[in-house]
Amino acid sequence: MNSKELVTDYGLDALSAVLHETAREKGFWDGEYSHDKVGNKLALVHSEVTEVLEAIRKSQGSEKVVEEIADVIIRLLDVYAAMRNEEQVLHSLDEILHYKIEKNKQRPKLHGNLF
Questions:
Q1: pLDDT grade for 10, boundaries at 50, 70 and 90
Q2: Of the residues 19, 34, 83, 112, which has the fewest C-beta atoms closer than 10 A?
Q3: pTM of the entire structure?
């Protein structure tokens, strides 16, 4: 099964499990699970977002921008799966995402903010 099938047929919960298993196999989660480790991984998500910004700022082209966006998604879903495995989060990303999409459809323009 390829990752395209995972996203379309099984959702983000399944994809995150596959991504996390790969990250574990490659040594990104060696050692004890801890809040510090999760914090470090979230900082890496932030660094990937910065790489998206830099790719746009430096006009590196569509493929580079999308590659960096993919890195953001991969790292974030990896953290989610790790937290879920440790029962630090108990809710399904697929379910909460659906809830948030529906909630945001009902919100006012700019969610009532100035910008």
A1: confident
A2: 112
A3: 0.88
